Amino acid sequence: MRENTGKSKYVMLGMLARMPLTGYMIKKWLENEYSHFWQESYGQIYPTLKKLVEEGLAVSSESSERRNGRGQILYTITDAGKKELSDWLSKEPEIEKLRYEILLKISFGDNTTKDVLLGHLDEFIQRNEKLIKDMNGYIEEIEGASGLDFDCSYSKLTALCGIHIYTAMKAWAIEAKDIIAAKGEKDHETKNP
């Protein structure tokens, strides 16, 4: 399970501020909209929702939606939940901590072969191309959605950030491949004059 940063509560409140949701709907929304910039453990969804209800920040009710033959619980933010969310939104964000294993592997690249590094970079480029495509698809999806009771422009902004990040990482990987390939040729020339 991912480390709980204590922000799960605000992720859920923010989503519930848009509309009442079931735990399953929250899970799907996390996968589609937030996965490129926020990792939330699925094992945290239901305990967090239960805690929001206990704290009076949300209420639960039986949903008319059924999944796997079972009724679903629908969660709705309360006025106290809206205030809690508003208070959190007004605070300055914490400094982001990024972790890219590929950067560690490139940093220690003198301990492996050029081909291993180039393979890692090829996979990284493909992964970023897929993520760019996914984010563009998400933007198209929300632009085509109708009948939503909230402003989608903020969701588009987070997806646009993802596109910029993944495009930059792809460009870096292409440049890194060129540098490693050129370095490999230079090292070969030095060893075999």
Task: Write up what this structure looks like.
With about 190 residues, the chain is mostly helical. The chain folds into two domains: about 10-90, Winged helix-like DNA-binding domain superfamily/Winged helix DNA-binding domain (Arc Repressor Mutant, subunit A, Orthogonal Bundle), CATH 1.10.10.10; about 100-190. The chain has seven helices and three strands, in the order H-E-H-H-E-E-H-H-H-H. It has helices at about 10-20, 25-35, 45-55, 80-90, 100-105, 115-145, 155-190; strands spanning about 20, 60-65, 70-75. A three-stranded antiparallel sheet has the order 1-3-2. Helix 1 packs across helix 3 (about 45-55) and helix 1 crosses helix 4. The protein is elongated.
Question: Keywords, please?
Answer:
193 residues, mainly alpha, Arc Repressor Mutant, subunit A, 7 helices, 3 strands, disordered C terminus
Question: Helix and strand layout, with pairings?
Answer:
Layout (H helix, E strand, L loop, with lengths): L7 H11 L2 E2 H12 L10 H10 L3 E10 L2 E8 L1 H12 L10 H7 L6 H31 L8 H39 L2
Antiparallel strand pairs: 1-3, 2-3
Helix pairs in contact: 1-3, 1-4, 6-7
